[in-house]
Amino acid sequence: MADIELVIKISEEKLSIIKNKMYCGIYDPDLYKAIENGTPLPKGHGRLVDAKEVYKKFYCRCLAGVAYEVLNETSTIIPEDKEKEE
Question: What is the pTM of this model?
């Protein structure tokens, strides 16, 4: 069976438990649900970048418009995280 790359959303606490190998044998329905609802990355996907960062790099408005159009026509693999970074 082939491997897939999967993006999941779990709490920092659960990630810490898993990383510290303190998870053995514990059934956690939330973790299974995160995996079940994960976003598989399509085979052959390119680099995943932040579209907002691309917009910021364009100083000329005419080029920024082109970048905006191209990025908006590109399918979204992982939706934007609306939470502000501290």
Answer: 0.61
